[in-house]
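> Could you send the ATP-grasp domain-containing protein prediction when you get a chance?

Sure thing. Input:
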Amino acid sequence: MKLTFVINDIATEQENYTTIRLARRAISMGHQVALVSIVDFVYEPDGRVSGFGKRPRRDDYEDDADILGDLQDDENEVQKIAICDEDIVLLRSDPANEVVNRPWAPTSGLLFAQIIAAQGVIVLNDPKKLTDAQNKTYFQTYPEIIRPETLITRDMAEIKTFIESMGGKAVIKPLQGSGGQGVFVIKDDSTANLNVMIEATVRDGYAIVQEYLPKAAEGDLRLLTLNGRPLVVDGIYACFKRFNESGDGRSNITAGGSVEMAQPDADALRLAEIASPRLIQDGMYFAGLDIVGNKMMEINVDTPGGINMAEDITGKDFSGAIIRDLEHKVRLKKNYPNMPTSDLVCI
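Output:
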């Protein structure tokens, strides 16, 4: 199987990224891997799409740091890769990382990915639906019962009115963002700084304001899904609790949070079940559901992470399960060459 990962930039990849773990596992299972940046596509005169990227130079790596070091080594030369000849293209770039310096990059990359998919390559997650999901507004298209009460606006008066209606407690964050960046938890003692928080959030675009869920103080759950359903290996869910003991309201690992494996409770599994039909319909093959109590705070469909942590803690081969599922899709595609690739996304 020939597999290309589309990322932001090889230079900014880190050894704890899920992409790197998946790439290393695919190589260990005998597959050919490439990493290409969203800014390095080439639309050829014959209508095919290529890309400049790098391939790992070995077929065995000691750990994730080892393969990343090989990819980032200056002696590992950039190659031109015929992406339309690949079996699978996994879209793993984070649009939030491009807001400042390359705001054009995510949209352009997804349009290239749509062309690639139209030429018969299995592209995951579905690039057409990812185009619709480039910020948190996408989550508002999921059933209301799973979502916290939400306001999206740039108007300060509207935001203040909403927070007051929530009893003075809410969460405000940029509509475009990830990793806990720019997240403010509004509580009773935040009144003096409220204007500053709102201004900081709306400075570069819309703000999303959500009701504060008291259980957030205990952290949140990240439940990873594959083919629209919770990812499970040997009875163990790819699910972990993220929490922050420093008093910071954010549990994201990139914001200094900690992590421990968790068994999803009945509420989490109910939320995943309700979200499943929409995930499948939209071709969101691999996603991360962020859950607090009986509500889902967000759905990460661009770069859901945590596979490496889940594997390191449990010893379960979650990345291998994903690669084997991709092998299954490639077999289906060969047996049903006329089936639209979009129909294969969540089979």
